Amino acid sequence: MSQDPKNENELSSDEETFFDAVTGQDDPMGISERELRKYKNRHTRAWLFLGIVLVLGLALVYFIRQDLTYFFKSTDPIDLGVAEDMQVIPLEHNEFVRIQAIARDMCIRADVFTRTVRFMYLLGSEMGSRIVVESEAAEDQACAGAVDGVFEGRILNLSQTGRYEKVIAYYREHFPGAPEQGPIYILQAGHTPHSSWWYPLAIVVVLVLWGFNVWMLWRTRSLRARFSGQGGTS
Protein backbone atom coordinates (compact mmCIF):
# COMPACT_ATOMS: atom_id res chain seq x y z
CA MET A 1 0.00 0.00 0.00
CA SER A 2 1.53 3.28 -1.06
CA GLN A 3 2.11 6.16 1.39
CA ASP A 4 2.19 9.90 0.67
CA PRO A 5 5.73 11.27 0.41
CA LYS A 6 6.75 13.29 3.50
CA ASN A 7 8.71 16.56 3.42
CA GLU A 8 11.72 16.16 5.68
CA ASN A 9 11.75 19.93 6.50
CA GLU A 10 8.14 19.94 7.67
CA LEU A 11 7.61 20.01 11.44
CA SER A 12 5.24 17.64 13.10
CA SER A 13 2.40 18.93 15.26
CA ASP A 14 4.33 17.93 18.40
CA GLU A 15 7.40 19.83 17.23
CA GLU A 16 5.33 22.94 16.44
CA THR A 17 3.82 22.78 19.93
CA PHE A 18 7.31 22.51 21.45
CA PHE A 19 8.69 25.54 19.59
CA ASP A 20 5.58 27.59 20.35
CA ALA A 21 6.08 26.89 24.04
CA VAL A 22 9.76 27.85 23.89
CA THR A 23 9.25 31.11 22.02
CA GLY A 24 6.06 31.98 23.88
CA GLN A 25 4.53 33.42 20.73
CA ASP A 26 3.34 32.25 17.33
CA ASP A 27 4.76 35.16 15.36
CA PRO A 28 7.60 37.12 16.92
CA MET A 29 7.88 39.44 13.93
CA GLY A 30 4.17 40.19 14.00
CA ILE A 31 4.26 41.17 17.68
CA SER A 32 7.32 43.36 17.07
CA GLU A 33 5.49 45.19 14.32
CA ARG A 34 2.44 45.66 16.52
CA GLU A 35 4.62 47.05 19.30
CA LEU A 36 6.32 49.38 16.83
CA ARG A 37 2.96 50.69 15.60
CA LYS A 38 1.82 51.15 19.20
CA TYR A 39 4.85 53.28 20.08
CA LYS A 40 4.57 55.24 16.85
CA ASN A 41 0.97 56.14 17.75
CA ARG A 42 1.98 56.97 21.31
CA HIS A 43 4.79 59.18 20.00
CA THR A 44 2.37 61.01 17.69
CA ARG A 45 -0.10 61.57 20.55
CA ALA A 46 2.72 62.87 22.75
CA TRP A 47 3.70 65.42 20.07
CA LEU A 48 0.07 66.50 19.73
CA PHE A 49 -0.37 66.88 23.49
CA LEU A 50 2.92 68.81 23.73
CA GLY A 51 1.67 71.26 21.11
CA ILE A 52 -1.66 71.72 22.93
CA VAL A 53 0.06 72.30 26.28
CA LEU A 54 2.46 74.78 24.67
CA VAL A 55 -0.34 76.80 23.03
CA LEU A 56 -2.52 76.80 26.15
CA GLY A 57 0.47 77.68 28.32
CA LEU A 58 1.39 80.67 26.15
CA ALA A 59 -2.24 81.83 26.14
CA LEU A 60 -2.37 81.53 29.94
CA VAL A 61 0.83 83.54 30.36
CA TYR A 62 -0.56 86.23 28.06
CA PHE A 63 -3.84 86.58 29.96
CA ILE A 64 -2.29 86.66 33.45
CA ARG A 65 0.90 88.53 32.52
CA GLN A 66 0.00 91.63 34.57
CA ASP A 67 -1.00 89.57 37.62
CA LEU A 68 2.17 87.51 37.30
CA THR A 69 4.31 90.65 37.01
CA TYR A 70 2.67 92.16 40.09
CA PHE A 71 3.29 88.98 42.10
CA PHE A 72 7.06 89.56 41.84
CA LYS A 73 6.94 93.28 42.72
CA SER A 74 8.67 94.59 45.83
CA THR A 75 6.63 94.42 49.03
CA ASP A 76 7.76 97.97 49.90
CA PRO A 77 4.94 100.24 48.67
CA ILE A 78 5.48 103.43 46.72
CA ASP A 79 4.35 106.23 49.02
CA LEU A 80 2.09 108.65 47.15
CA GLY A 81 1.68 110.88 50.19
CA VAL A 82 -1.57 112.62 51.13
CA ALA A 83 -4.36 112.71 48.55
CA GLU A 84 -5.14 116.38 49.28
CA ASP A 85 -1.61 117.40 48.31
CA MET A 86 -1.34 115.29 45.14
CA GLN A 87 -0.68 116.96 41.81
CA VAL A 88 -2.23 115.68 38.60
CA ILE A 89 0.53 113.37 37.42
CA PRO A 90 0.46 110.01 35.66
CA LEU A 91 0.80 107.06 38.02
CA GLU A 92 2.66 103.89 37.17
CA HIS A 93 0.35 101.05 36.21
CA ASN A 94 0.36 97.79 38.18
CA GLU A 95 2.38 99.01 41.17
CA PHE A 96 2.15 98.51 44.91
CA VAL A 97 1.36 101.91 46.48
CA ARG A 98 0.30 103.60 49.69
CA ILE A 99 -1.78 106.77 50.04
CA GLN A 100 -3.29 108.63 52.97
CA ALA A 101 -6.72 109.99 52.18
CA ILE A 102 -10.33 110.57 53.04
CA ALA A 103 -12.45 108.36 50.81
CA ARG A 104 -16.17 108.65 50.16
CA ASP A 105 -18.14 105.44 49.94
CA MET A 106 -20.03 105.22 46.64
CA CYS A 107 -22.52 102.87 48.34
CA ILE A 108 -22.21 100.12 45.74
CA ARG A 109 -21.17 96.57 46.45
CA ALA A 110 -19.95 93.75 44.22
CA ASP A 111 -19.29 90.05 44.75
CA VAL A 112 -15.77 89.06 43.68
CA PHE A 113 -15.24 85.31 44.00
CA THR A 114 -15.86 84.57 47.69
CA ARG A 115 -15.81 88.12 49.04
CA THR A 116 -17.81 91.34 48.86
CA VAL A 117 -16.11 94.60 47.92
CA ARG A 118 -17.11 98.25 48.06
CA PHE A 119 -15.94 101.20 45.98
CA MET A 120 -14.87 104.64 47.21
CA TYR A 121 -13.27 107.67 45.62
CA LEU A 122 -10.71 109.97 47.21
CA LEU A 123 -11.55 113.51 48.32
CA GLY A 124 -9.49 116.68 48.52
CA SER A 125 -7.91 117.09 45.09
CA GLU A 126 -8.44 116.56 41.39
CA MET A 127 -5.87 113.76 41.41
CA GLY A 128 -7.65 112.12 44.32
CA SER A 129 -10.91 112.10 42.37
CA ARG A 130 -9.14 110.03 39.71
CA ILE A 131 -8.45 107.21 42.18
CA VAL A 132 -11.25 104.78 43.03
CA VAL A 133 -10.57 102.45 45.94
CA GLU A 134 -11.79 98.86 45.91
CA SER A 135 -11.77 97.39 49.41
CA GLU A 136 -13.27 94.39 51.14
CA ALA A 137 -16.54 94.95 52.98
CA ALA A 138 -18.93 92.87 55.02
CA GLU A 139 -21.92 91.70 53.01
CA ASP A 140 -24.38 93.55 55.27
CA GLN A 141 -22.16 96.57 55.92
CA ALA A 142 -24.01 99.84 55.56
CA CYS A 143 -22.78 102.74 53.45
CA ALA A 144 -19.99 104.30 55.51
CA GLY A 145 -20.05 107.82 54.09
CA ALA A 146 -16.48 109.10 54.52
CA VAL A 147 -13.57 106.88 55.55
CA ASP A 148 -10.31 108.44 56.77
CA GLY A 149 -7.25 106.23 56.63
CA VAL A 150 -4.23 104.85 54.80
CA PHE A 151 -4.97 102.76 51.73
CA GLU A 152 -2.34 100.31 50.55
CA GLY A 153 -2.56 98.00 47.56
CA ARG A 154 -2.28 97.52 43.83
CA ILE A 155 -3.02 100.45 41.54
CA LEU A 156 -4.27 99.91 37.99
CA ASN A 157 -4.65 102.35 35.14
CA LEU A 158 -8.07 101.47 33.73
CA SER A 159 -6.98 102.36 30.21
CA GLN A 160 -4.74 99.26 30.38
CA THR A 161 -7.36 96.86 31.69
CA GLY A 162 -10.72 95.71 30.39
CA ARG A 163 -12.44 95.84 33.78
CA TYR A 164 -14.50 98.13 36.03
CA GLU A 165 -16.39 99.83 33.18
CA LYS A 166 -19.72 99.64 35.06
CA VAL A 167 -18.19 101.01 38.25
CA ILE A 168 -16.69 104.01 36.44
CA ALA A 169 -19.92 104.61 34.51
CA TYR A 170 -21.82 104.69 37.83
CA TYR A 171 -19.20 107.02 39.32
CA ARG A 172 -19.49 109.50 36.45
CA GLU A 173 -23.26 109.34 36.39
CA HIS A 174 -23.93 109.87 40.11
CA PHE A 175 -21.02 112.01 41.35
CA PRO A 176 -20.41 115.44 39.76
CA GLY A 177 -16.75 115.49 40.81
CA ALA A 178 -15.89 112.43 38.72
CA PRO A 179 -13.48 113.34 35.90
CA GLU A 180 -14.91 112.93 32.43
CA GLN A 181 -11.55 112.95 30.67
CA GLY A 182 -8.08 111.67 31.43
CA PRO A 183 -6.92 108.59 33.31
CA ILE A 184 -8.80 106.94 36.15
CA TYR A 185 -7.16 104.46 38.49
CA ILE A 186 -8.38 101.61 40.65
CA LEU A 187 -6.59 101.04 43.94
CA GLN A 188 -7.17 97.45 45.05
CA ALA A 189 -6.71 97.94 48.78
CA GLY A 190 -5.17 94.99 50.59
CA HIS A 191 -3.86 93.36 47.42
CA THR A 192 -0.15 92.98 48.10
CA PRO A 193 2.58 91.34 45.99
CA HIS A 194 3.18 87.65 46.71
CA SER A 195 -0.44 87.26 47.85
CA SER A 196 -1.95 85.75 44.69
CA TRP A 197 0.15 82.58 44.73
CA TRP A 198 -2.15 80.74 42.30
CA TYR A 199 -0.76 82.67 39.30
CA PRO A 200 2.80 81.29 39.53
CA LEU A 201 1.33 77.95 40.59
CA ALA A 202 -0.59 77.79 37.29
CA ILE A 203 2.64 78.40 35.38
CA VAL A 204 4.42 75.69 37.40
CA VAL A 205 1.65 73.20 36.53
CA VAL A 206 1.99 74.04 32.82
CA LEU A 207 5.78 73.59 33.01
CA VAL A 208 5.41 70.24 34.79
CA LEU A 209 2.98 69.02 32.11
CA TRP A 210 5.30 70.24 29.39
CA GLY A 211 8.32 68.56 30.99
CA PHE A 212 6.43 65.30 31.50
CA ASN A 213 5.41 65.29 27.87
CA VAL A 214 8.99 65.92 26.70
CA TRP A 215 10.04 62.93 28.80
CA MET A 216 7.27 60.83 27.21
CA LEU A 217 8.48 61.85 23.76
CA TRP A 218 12.03 60.79 24.61
CA ARG A 219 10.84 57.49 26.09
CA THR A 220 8.56 56.52 23.21
CA ARG A 221 11.24 57.50 20.70
CA SER A 222 13.76 55.26 22.47
CA LEU A 223 11.33 52.34 22.58
CA ARG A 224 10.37 52.81 18.96
CA ALA A 225 14.06 52.83 17.97
CA ARG A 226 14.64 49.65 19.96
CA PHE A 227 11.77 47.81 18.29
CA SER A 228 12.83 49.12 14.89
CA GLY A 229 16.33 47.72 15.50
CA GLN A 230 14.93 44.35 16.49
CA GLY A 231 12.81 44.27 13.36
CA GLY A 232 15.80 45.16 11.19
CA THR A 233 18.03 42.44 12.64
CA SER A 234 15.47 39.64 12.59
What is the CA-based Rg, rounded?
35 Å
CATH architecture field of one domain: Beta Barrel
How far from one another are the termini?
44 Å
What integer is the average pLDDT? 80
- Beta-strand portion reads 15-25%
Shape: elongated
Number of strands: 6
Structural summary, described in words:
The protein is of the alpha/beta class and 234 residues long. Among the domains are: 76-189, OB fold (Dihydrolipoamide Acetyltransferase, E2P) (Beta Barrel); 197-234. It is 44% helix and 23% strand. It is built from six helices and six strands; from the N terminus they run αααβββαββαβα. It has a five-stranded mixed barrel. Strand 2 and strand 3 (115-122) form a beta hairpin. The two termini are 44 Å apart. The relative contact order is 0.16.
